[in-house]
Amino acid sequence: KQEVTQIPAALSVPEGENLVLNCSFTDSAIYNLQWFRQDPGKGLTSLLLIQSSQREQTSGRLNASLDKSSGRSTLYIAASQPGDSATYLCAARPTGAGSYQLTFGKGTKLSVIP
Amino acid sequence: DAGITQSPRHKVTETGTPVTLRCHQTENHRYMYWYRQDPGHGLRLIHYSYGVKDTDKGEVSDGYSVSRSKTEDFLLTLESATSSQTSVYFCAISEKRDVYNSPLHFGNGTRLTVT
Predict the structure, then answer these.
(1) Whether A94 contacts A104, CB under 8 Å
(2) pLDDT digits (tens, 9 = 90+) for B4-62
(3) Which whole number is the average pLDDT over A103-114?
(4) Most CB atoms closer than 10 Å: which of A11, A82, B25, B62?
């Protein structure tokens, strides 16, 4: 069974710092790896989706990478801002049976201090 | 904005009562999902739908049923609510025909408390 782990559970950084959030998964048989942002009391917002054949995806100040062989993905946030404060979740979509069911990590709660 | 509306946003109910949560989408997406989010467990799939009247179970389907009689509406029913079903429930959709490589978009959730 796929397991997705995000470490650390919480992270606090000063404004302007570049930072990396980590996501590891146990089964490399995935279609893709998705990164989401969740603000308190809200649903998840899709940030980036990396297909299994891709190495990275970029959107603005965000860059996500994928290394299937090592079971790792990272989300790089450049020049962090207080508005980036949120919980960031990653999720892996498996191939084969059960491919409708994403496995989510428990998230990293990011606080960017002004 | 993927045009997803969940109702109600908050609900308190008593153990043993039936509860129905509604997810409404405005963009004619084929695939719809119900997740629950709990501290320590993260998000887990309850049921999903791949078309009108086409549904299947997810990881934590016991105690839940779903119905989809129209493309735009996906209903989640707790037949007899229990305290273990206290949770935040999220509806999600896949936006493209290629469901396997399509990002999920979520509604804002329904916070359900079973007393």
Answers:
(1) no
(2) 999 999 999 999 999 999 999 998 898 999 999 998 888 999 999 999 999 999 999 99
(3) 96
(4) B25
List the structure tokens of A70.
Answer: 């090592």
Residues facing residue A63 across a β-bridge: A58, A76
Number of A to B CB contacts under 8 A, please give it: 60
Distance from C-alpha of A69 to C-alpha of B21, rounded to nearest angstrom = 40
Q: How far apart are CA A41 and CA A90, in angstroms?
A: 18
- Among A42, A51, A106, the residue with its CB nearest the CB of B42 is A106
Q: Which residue has the tokens 């904005």?
A: B1
Residues of chain B neighbouring A89 (CB-CB closer than 8 A): 42-43
Considering only the beta carbons, identify the residue of A34, A43, A93 that sits closest to B90.
A43
pLDDT band at B2 (very low <50, low <70, confident <90, very high): low
For strands B42-51 and B87-94, give the pairing: unpaired
Which chain A residues have a beta carbon less than 8 Å from that of B108?
Answer: 41-43
Which of A46, A100, A104 faces B105 most closely, judged by CB atoms?
A46
Return all residues near A90 (Cβ < 8 A) that are at least 6 apart.
Answer: A4, A6, A23, A33, A34, A35, A36, A73, A75, A104, A105
Going B31 to B20 to B110 to A10, the CA torsion angle's sign is negative
